[in-house]
UniProtKB/TrEMBL annotation:
GO terms for biological process: cellulose catabolic process. Pfam families: AA9. It catalyses: [(1->4)-beta-D-glucosyl]n+m + reduced acceptor + O2 = 4-dehydro-beta-D-glucosyl-[(1->4)-beta-D-glucosyl]n-1 + [(1->4)-beta-D-glucosyl]m + acceptor + H2O. It comes from the Eukaryota. Residues 1-21 form the signal peptide. Keywords: Carbohydrate metabolism, Cellulose degradation, Copper, Disulfide bond, Hydrolase, Metal-binding, Monooxygenase, Oxidoreductase, Polysaccharide degradation, Secreted, Signal. This is lytic cellulose monooxygenase (C4-dehydrogenating). The keyword Membrane does not apply. Belongs to the polysaccharide monooxygenase AA9 family.
């Protein structure tokens, strides 16, 4: 933990202001247990393959700008950890994603899961693997898109404490290995959405006596790229435009959530 905050601060200091300062998912917690993520500010050789690393590699805090990017699934370069490097938890548990100094206030956030074929997450082809959305949040309250309270704004912390994003893994989810994908989309630059995503391996157990659980029907599956057209209004919207000054509703793109 100790090394993560200073390196992120150093990275942020290279940029001129909030508009150009980015970030990402640094750690995960389940209960009191912390799972370190990949740190783009630290040497790759000290991280890839380490037994503690269950997150996919991301080498820059910069966003991906193209919804059609082949790195939309799990960021760039998206190098997977070994399949047996996982964050273990039970269906119904809360997985919390931790960020430091998340600076952007506007845009949707979502969490996705993909079951790993044959439990082998690391060899899965990320761009043909269907993900289903289990959580989403957009604009929580008005007065409009620009200055209203988005979940993204509520989530950010300016005092150096961790920004926590807790999400319940659906209680009825089938046990097994999954790729979990957290995405923050920032919309503060009109017509140029910024996609920030990180992935990790989950090993989902069933609670005693709760049965085998289920997967959502195939129609819930979305591909990355593919889940977004890239030109839909929800991504291209100019939050500062006169025509949206009374708008208090926002639809998170990518289809409905499945919560079991
Ligand atoms: Cu940024």
């Amino acid at each position: 933990m100790a090394g993560i905050l200073p390196s992120l601060l150093a990275a942020l200091a290279l940029f001129s202001g909030p508009v150009h300062a980015h970030g990402g998912l640094a750690n995960y917690t389940v209960g009191d247990t912390w799972y370190r993520g990949y740190d783009p500010g630290e040497p790759e050789s000290e991280q890839l393959g380490q037994p503690w690393l269950a997150q996919y590699q991301w080498t820059t805090i910069d966003p991906i700008f193209e919804a059609s990017s082949p790195y939309m699934p799990c960021n760039f370069p998206g190098t997977p950890p070994p399949s047996n490097h996982t964050i273990p938890l039970s269906a119904g548990d809360t997985l919390t994603a931790i960020y430091w100094y998340w600076l952007h206030p506007v845009g949707p956030m979502s969490v996705w899961l993909a079951p790993c074929p044959n439990s082998d997450c690391a060899t899965a082809n990320l761009t043909t693997l269907p993900f289903f959305k289990i959580w989403e949040a957009g604009l929580l309250e008005g007065p409009n898109l620009e200055v209203g309270v988005w979940y993204q704004k509520k989530f950010q912390k300016w005092d150096g404490t961790p920004a926590e994003w807790p999400v319940v893994i659906p209680e009825n989810l089938k046990g097994g290995r999954y790729i979990v994908r957290h995405e923050i989309t920032s919309l503060h630059v009109p017509g140029r959405p910024q996609f920030y995503m990180q992935c990790a391996h989950l090993d989902v157990k069933r609670k005693d006596g709760e049965g085998e659980g289920v997967l959502p029907p195939a129609r819930w599956g979305r591909l990355f790229p593919g889940a977004y057209e890239g030109d839909e209004e929800e991504l291209m919207i100019d939050i500062y435009a006169e025509e949206y000054q009374n708008r208090t509703e926002y639809t998170v793109p990518g289809g409905p959530i499945w919560d079991g």
